């Protein structure tokens, strides 16, 4: 219940932020907002999980120069799962939760696609919200650090591919999300 209240507060704060640029999508009743750099985006998503495990994984990721942090938590499940990629260490991936840990390897094609996409990515923060019945709530957090740039994506009401927009940087973020999502769930 505390987490749902916290997420609702995050939703209110992010949707009421003045000056943000709406990226737009009427498909699936979803929209994406680019959050201006003046907002403290990290303070919004740090409330999604108050566990020490989440805080420690986020702190460990902050020690990586170039990497990808993916967090996913489904409604009704106490803690979420992580997929953390260290780009500087040949794209080494680790899938983990409180009860699970597995090293993951990327295909040559995925490494190549990620490498090309990361070069084009611009620094931005995205918040996605969807109205209407989404079935159940799933929190998605994606943080990409590459070449002194940081892209952050946060949603608890929709999957990034639900949004079809003309913003090239968000499309690149979607491509990275899809590769990371697939590899995080790959056996």
TrEMBL record:
It comes from the Bacteria. This is Lipoprotein. It comes from Flavobacterium pectinovorum.
């Amino acid at each position: 219940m505390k987490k749902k209240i916290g997420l609702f507060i995050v939703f209110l704060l992010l949707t009421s932020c003045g000056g943000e640029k709406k990226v737009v999508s009427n498909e699936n009743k979803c929209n994406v907002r680019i959050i201006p750099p003046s907002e403290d985006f990290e303070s919004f998503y740090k409330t999604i999980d108050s566990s020490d495990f989440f805080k420690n994984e986020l702190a460990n990721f902050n020690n990586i120069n170039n990497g990808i942090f993916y967090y996913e938590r489904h409604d009704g499940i106490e803690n979420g799962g992580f997929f953390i990629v260290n780009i500087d260490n040949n794209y080494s991936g680790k899938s983990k939760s409180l009860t699970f840990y597995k090293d993951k390897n990327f295909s040559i094609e995925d490494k190549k696609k990620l490498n090309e996409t990361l070069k084009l990515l611009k620094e931005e923060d995205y918040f996605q919200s969807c109205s209407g019945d989404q079935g159940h709530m799933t929190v998605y957090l994606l943080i990409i650090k590459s070449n002194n740039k940081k892209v952050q994506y946060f949603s608890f009401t929709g999957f990034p591919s639900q949004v079809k927009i003309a913003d090239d940087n968000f499309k690149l973020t979607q491509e990275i999300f899809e590769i990371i999502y697939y590899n995080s769930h790959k056996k």
